[in-house]
Specification:
single chain, D-Maltodextrin-Binding Protein, domain 2, 317 residues, globular, 11 helices, ten-stranded mixed sheet, 10 strands, alpha/beta
Length: 317
């Protein structure tokens, strides 16, 4: 993880040095900020830092990454929704943060239409993970232990109503067992909780689980993951649990068309850059580009599906 952060920092200088002048709608030399809805060290944070460098190169501007985590991404989403729609404040977050959290908590100061999608950059795949020292070696082992002690075992995820929470809830429903839900501010804090035994299991980005040496009991997907060929899917083990989450770059609603177009071009070019793709490959995350319009439609579809599941599972704050 430290080597990856150092590589990102080293790549920034030559990128910005090669950059051309600022596009229309932007003042040369005035930095942008990218609000990340999750804490440092997780897969979303590292992807955000990579796209900030790549987009900064394309725009000829510095982009400062600021972590505004908490509330399953709702803290950062709220800050983004309330920012001026001038193109200088962007967000890097997930569909669940902008669309599902207001459904769970109507008092939040934003709705899905509070945002302008710029481009989708990723689709995170989750893993059911435990500590390397855990006695559970398969998903069935964990289910059997939870069945023997209803509600005694706990699981950690990045907040209530997050995609990781939905994934774990699907697993528990499929296994017909109960475990205690322990929410964290992001994926990264789940790792030490697993290592220390504070929680028995967790649902988190498969790339993070792998990089931190956690034992993955299964992938939340119907299809095997080429990055983790030795980790079976949960459906293949008899547990119908397949949640993932999409995300990328968004801006506040009301963005002027020329500014939006410049940001979309920068995001698309940034995703094609060698620097971003190198980071994504190291993280074992597939580049999943969609332009702004397609990203917006994908968010709406993903949120509608997850809202139905959220209600069916009876998940509340």
């Amino acid at each position: 993880m430290r080597r990856l952060l150092l590589a990102l920092a080293a790549a920034a200088a030559p990128m910005l040095a090669q950059a051309q002048g600022a596009p229309p709608g932007f003042t040369p030399g005035r930095p942008l900020q990218l609000l990340v809805s999750f804490p440092p060290g997780g897969a979303t944070d590292l992807l955000a830092r990579a796209i900030a460098q790549a987009m900064g190169h394309e725009l000829g501007q510095n982009i400062a990454v600021i972590n505004r985590d908490g509330g399953a991404g709702s803290v950062g989403a709220a800050a983004l929704a309330q920012a001026r729609p001038d193109g200088y404040t962007l967000g890097f977050t997930t569909s669940t943060s902008v669309g599902l959290q207001p459904h769970l908590n109507p008092s939040l100061p934003y709705r899905l239409n509070s945002f302008t999608p710029i481009c989708q950059t990723f689709e995170l795949v989750f893993a059911l993970a435990v500590s390397p020292e855990s006695p559970h070696r398969t998903a069935a082992d964990l289910a059997a232990a939870a069945r023997a002690r209803p509600g005694a075992l706990s699981f950690g995820v990045n907040g209530t109503g997050s995609a990781a929470h939905l994934a774990m809830a699907e697993f528990l429903r499929a296994a017909n067992v109960q475990m205690l839900h322990v929410p964290y501010r992001g994926d990264a804090p789940v790792v030490p909780a697993l290592r220390s035994g504070d929680v028995a299991a967790g649902s988190l980005a498969a790339s993070l689980a792998d990089s931190q040496g956690l034992r993955m009991l299964g992938i939340f997907s119907n299809a095997p993951n080429p990055y983790f060929p030795n980790v079976p899917t949960l459906p293949s083990q008899g547990f119908a649990a397949t949640q993932s989450v999409i995300g990328g770059v968004l801006a506040p609603a009301g963005l002027e068309a020329p500014v939006r177009a410049a940001l979309e071009r920068a995001c698309e070019a940034g995703l094609r850059s060698e620097g971003y793709r190198t980071v994504a490959e190291r993280l074992r995350e597939r580049v999943a580009y969609l332009d702004g319009a397609a990203f917006g439609a994908a968010i709406e579809a993903d949120v509608a599906s997850k809202r139905a599941l959220l209600d069916a599972l009876g998940i509340r704050p």
